[in-house]
Write a structure and sequence with these properties.
globular, binds 2-phosphoglycolic acid, TIM Barrel
């Protein structure tokens, strides 16, 4: 399983960041799961540059620009040079701040060009009875993938994060049968966009109120390859507990 800890802007000091990194290192001694930490940019640099552990680091976002006279922007290239190997792209909180499908597609291409493994976030705002949310998911993936070559598309990890499930508690997350259905659907869409057997090899993660209380259920028989975890990833006790639940 791939466990991605999205620290968002929850972690604002070095002491807390150090504690979370130490917990991850300790967990990696006893688990086969892969841990990817996504700290805010300056903290990512502080840890990823001198990283000698099995922890991998992800940018929470990358700039839509490619550098130059762009005050305040952090490009994919800078993240790669700082030791990141993954990049979260199109998170719903970035989309809410103005990232359109076109911007997400551009960021995805920049991440791939900088040799970062992109984690493309998709997810419907709400579920309707007519299944329009399925068409929405298809459109989000298609819009992001269309400008890419098939080789580039094959590098992307998909993180399914329904907006209605983000930032709540385990009870509000998706149920395991709904998740299993969605993973199948995403793979079907991927099979139309990726060559050969690549769709079955693509990693699909789930995010949205993953906590120690539901992670085991969500991992069991849903076809999911890992999780993108927000609030529970910045609480060292919860993060250790949910990783252990997967063992
Ligand atoms: P959450 O956030 O785990 O706090 O719901 C997940 C995410 O937004 O990536």
């Amino acid at each position: 399983m791939l466990i991605v800890a999205n620290w968002k802007a929850y972690v604002e000091n070095l002491e807390k960041a150090e504690r979370l990194v130490a917990v991850s290192k300790k967990l990696l001694r006893t688990t086969e799961h892969r841990i990817v930490l996504a700290p805010p940019a300056p903290l990512l640099g502080a840890f990823a540059m001198k990283n000698t552990s099995r922890i991998a680091y992800a940018a929470q976002d990358v700039s839509a620009t490619t550098g130059g006279a762009e005050t305040g922007e952090t490009t994919a290239q800078i993240y790669a040079a700082s030791g990141a190997t993954y990049a979260i792209i199109g998170h719903s909180e970035r989309r809410a701040a103005g990232d359109t499908d076109a911007i997400v597609a551009e960021k995805l291409a920049h991440a791939i060009a900088a040799d970062l493994t992109p984690i493309l976030c998709i997810g419907e705002r709400e579920r309707d009875r007519d299944g329009r949310y399925l068409a929405f998911i298809r459109e989000e993936i298609t819009a992001a993938f269309t400008p890419l070559t098939s080789k580039e598309r094959s590098r992307a990890i998909i993180a399914y994060e329904p907006l209605w499930a983000i930032g709540k508690t385990a009870e509000s997350a998706i149920g395991s049968s709904d998740l299993a259905e969605m993973v199948l659907y995403i793979r079907k869409v991927l099979s139309e966009l990726l060559p050969g057997k690549n769709a079955s090899h693509a990693l699909v993660l789930y995010g949205g109120s993953v906590e120690p209380g539901n992670i085991r259920d969500l991992a069991r028989a849903t076809g999911i390859d890992g999780f993108l975890i927000g609030h529970a990833s910045v609480d060292d006790v919860m993060f250790a507990a949910l990783t252990k639940e997967l063992s």
